Amino acid sequence: MKPVSLAKYIQKSPFLTKLLLPISNAYVHLSGYRKYGLRYDDLMLEENDDTQKALSRLPKMESYDRVYRIRRAMQLSIENKILPKSEWTKPEEDYHYLRPVLAEVIAERKEREAFDALIVKKPETQAHATSSPAHAH
């Protein structure tokens, strides 16, 4: 079953956007990942094969930065600390860097699965379907 998302519908409606944006911002603030210098895509689980493939496709510097952010956040968590407010991830820095790559990987996998499940039937030719007069007795 495909998960239902209302995001596109909400983004198209100025009223709903205006209504829900403060709630969204409050949720992001309460989740606290920006206080550790993380981006939203840093929170994605890596145990998934698709995510692993997407991570391998990231540019080297983006991958390095991701690992650095995660390790720094883990260290801060162990020490029960957060970053100084000046070092928190700013909203404009919190963009999706992994999701587009992951969407591409998933689309490729689904296409491959559909292609692998494809059944090719060889059409019968007219020559084989009717018997030739030479063979008729």
What can be said about this structure in brief?
Component of the ubiquinol-cytochrome c oxidoreductase, a multisubunit transmembrane complex that is part of the mitochondrial electron transport chain which drives oxidative phosphorylation. By secondary structure, this protein is mainly α.
Series of H and E elements: HHHHHH
Fraction in helix: 40-55%
Which parts are unreliable, with pLDDT below 50 for 5 consecutive residues or more?
none
For the record, the CATH architecture of the domain at 32-117 stands as Orthogonal Bundle
- Count of individual helical segments: 6
Spatial separation of the terminal alpha carbons:
60 Å
Helix/strand/pairing category: mainly alpha
What proportion of the residues form beta strands (DSSP E)?
under 5%
Broad CATH class of the domain at 32-117: Mainly Alpha
CATH topology-level fold name of the domain at 32-117: Cytochrome Bc1 Complex, Chain F
What overall form do the CA principal axes indicate?
flat
Task: Please tell me how large the radius of gyration is.
Answer: 26 Å
What would the average pLDDT be, to the nearest integer?
A: 85
For the largest beta-sheet, the strand count, sense and barrel status come to: none
Account of the protein in words:
This protein is mainly α. It has 6 helices and no strands. It has helices spanning 7-12, 14-31, 49-57, 60-78, 99-116, 126-129. It is flat and about 80 Å long. The termini are far apart. The model has no long low-confidence stretch (mean pLDDT 85). It is found in: Mitochondrion inner membrane.
